Amino acid sequence: MKHGALLTALLTAAVVAMAPAPASAQDLAGMWELSQETGRGTRTSTLSLTVDGMTLTGTVTTTGGGRRGGGGGGGPQAVEISDGKIDGSSFSFTLIRTFGDNTITQTYSGTIDGATLTGTIEGGGRRGGGQPRPFTGKRPS
């Protein structure tokens, strides 16, 4: 092989090796800090995920805050996720929260791009509905 052809082959291999790999299901595993903008400011929570093939399990821990006008538990609350699925760089899962006699179901769906999650939360709004609300996620620092 001539030096020019060898040099071209080596440079091509180096460029391909340096290109970022697409996010995979395994990249979702671990801890994430989620942020959601609300009418009352930024709401944060911690997402802990485990990946098994194309199945996603884990918990979402919120910082609480209680109900309007006081009352209601304000401490951290961990909720198990259910129906967790992964499809390439996309994911989804459901949270079912119980407050006394009330049950609120929220569906999270989004994508992973490197060390960033973006997506929406549906359900669980006022009167059980509301528009999808965006969230972002990053690895804890």
Q: Using the coordinates above, name the CATH class.
A: Mainly Beta
Secondary-structure element order, N to C = HEEEEEEEE
Radius of gyration, taken over Cα atoms and rounded to an integer in Å: 20 Å
CATH superfamily: Quinohemoprotein amine dehydrogenase alpha subunit, domain 2
Mean pLDDT: 80
Count of distinct strands: 8
Query: Termini separation (Å)?
Result: 48 Å
Integer tally of domains: 1
Number of helices: 1
Give the biggest beta sheet: 8 strands, antiparallel, barrel
Strand order of the largest sheet: 1-2-3-4-5-6-7-8
Oligomer classification: single chain
Instruction: Pick out the low-confidence regions.
Output: 13-22, 68-72
Q: What overall geometry do the principal axes of the alpha carbons give?
A: globular
CATH architecture: Beta Barrel
Helical residues, percent: 10-25%
In the CATH hierarchy, the third-tier topology is known as Lipocalin
What would your notes on this structure say?
16% of the residues are buried. This protein has one helix at residues 3-18; strands spanning 30-38, 41-52, 55-62, 77-87, 90-99, 102-113, 116-122, 133-138. Strands 1-2-3-4-5-6-7-8 form an eight-stranded antiparallel β-barrel. Mean pLDDT is 80; it is low at 13-22 and 68-72. The protein has one domain (22-138): Quinohemoprotein amine dehydrogenase alpha subunit, domain 2 (Lipocalin), CATH 2.40.128. With 141 residues, the protein is mainly β. It is built from one helix and eight strands; from the N terminus they run αββββββββ.
